From TrEMBL:
It comes from Nonomuraea diastatica. This is Uncharacterized protein. Pfam families: DUF5825. The lineage of its organism: Bacteria, Bacillati, Actinomycetota, Actinomycetes, Streptosporangiales. InterPro entries: DUF5825. It comes from the Bacteria.
Amino acid sequence: MISATYAVRPEQLTTDGPDLGLPPPNTVPQDVPDVAALWKAGYRAVFVDGRDGTAAADLCRLLASLRDLESAGFRVRWAAPATLLDRVPDWTLLTHLPAPESGLDDRTQAEWRALYRFGRLRWFKGPGFIKIHDQRCDAGLVLTLTDHVHLHFVERASGTSVFRPDVSWYADEAIEVFHDAGLVLSLDDDHVWLAGRVRRWSNPSQLMAP
């Protein structure tokens, strides 16, 4: 589970990153942070404490929350559960997210930080199609989806923190396609959509104190 989300206002940011301190300026004790409400309230940076997210469903919720916060333009820092690499051996699938500040050995954390770039995995919706940009690999990949089943699946999955085979819009064919493409992460019977729908690009002038 997510123990807490520490939210920071623009005036509390420094050029070296948010000064979260202890205790944090604000604590939002909810499993899934209300991203829109945090942004509307004036917050621009968050620290998500996910060290308790050892269960499959909790880890999916954690990754979905990071996905949504990052896509909304927040500066994100987070703590991962100690079991992260056991659950996700191929951690490069997650390098569209900032490297966590706990839960990794020093070498993996350094490699993850070197690979991370904002917007490495994102999707956009156009008239009758969805385009997915995946830059987690050196070559990069662009997928253009037009199949109705795939379009419906992406929109529903990306708006959900964790989903299981019993949801009405679950489609075996779509799961297979997107799992093979590294866009859906499956942990036991729980699944999470990894690509963020970018609605707002981070503006450095918003993320640094004057």
